[in-house]
Amino acid sequence: EAQVTQNPRYLITVTGKKLTVTCSQNMNHEYMSWYRQDPGLGLRQIYYSMNVEVTDKGDVPEGYKVSRKEKRNFPLILESPSPNQTSLYFCASSGRRQGQNEAFFGQGTRLTVV
Amino acid sequence: DAKTTQPPSMDCAEGRAANLPCNHSTISGNEYVYWYRQIHSQGPQYIIHGLKNNETNEMASLIITEDRKSSTLILPHATLRDTAVYYCIVSSRGSQGNLIFGKGTKLSVKP
């Protein structure tokens, strides 16, 4: 089954404690991206990757890092989380071959930073 | 990528067709119209996309005006499970992995 898997689904952490949210896709997709969703602000892109070792900043990259060492994985790293990073996070992937038109999204990670 | 404009909310009676409009007056020739929906706080789900011809799949139909400046997503027989936020996104082929979401339309299907 084609899927994007995020872990963990829920996380409560304290300010300043480094954390990583993992994202993995099983569709051999080139593109992967991270979004955060906040009430009233909608889905905003954090980082974007077109392929292995290629990443670009989205609209709200401050406070986040990503890496794309393998095609299937695209972890989101918060080196020093702060309360304003409390949010619902989504990972997405899509392919660039003919016929690959849709982006697939993970089920989300709800992060609370206290 | 071109911007889109959608009404913030719409209601639809269960079993009736839901017609969701989207304006994208600055769309360029190589840009497609994509529709996604998000049910509650789940991950967004792809519905349909098109370039200039009308499209239909098992979920919905997409009607694009001849000048391509607007489109309508049609859910032919809305059910309560279609209650969701619907996003219209314009993006060039090859950028469908770099989707920029607007605020979308909150569709409420009522019994």
Task: Describe the protein's architecture and organization.
The complex is a heterodimer of chains A (114) and B (111). Chain A has no helices and 11 strands. Chain A is mainly beta and 114 residues long. In chain A, strands 2, 4, 5, 6, 9, 10 and 11 form a 7-stranded mixed beta sheet that branches. Chain B is globular. With 111 residues, chain B is mostly beta strands. In chain B, the strands form 2 sheets. A 5-stranded mixed beta sheet of chain B has the order 1-9-8-3-4, with no helix packed on it. At the A-B interface, β4, β5, β9 and β10 of A face β3 and β4 of B.
How is the secondary structure organized here?
The complex is a heterodimer of chains A (114) and B (111).
Chain A: E1 4-7, E2 10-13, E3 19-25, E4 31-38, E5 42-51, E6 54-57, E7 65-66, E8 76-78, E9 87-94, E10 104-105, E11 109-113
Parallel strand pairs in A: 2-11
Antiparallel strand pairs in A: 1-3, 3-8, 4-5, 4-9, 5-6, 7-8, 9-10, 9-11
Chain B: E1 9-13, E2 18-23, E3 31-38, E4 45-50, E5 55-56, E6 61-64, E7 70-75, E8 84-92, E9 105-110
Parallel strand pairs in B: 1-9
Antiparallel strand pairs in B: 2-7, 3-4, 3-8, 5-6, 6-7, 8-9
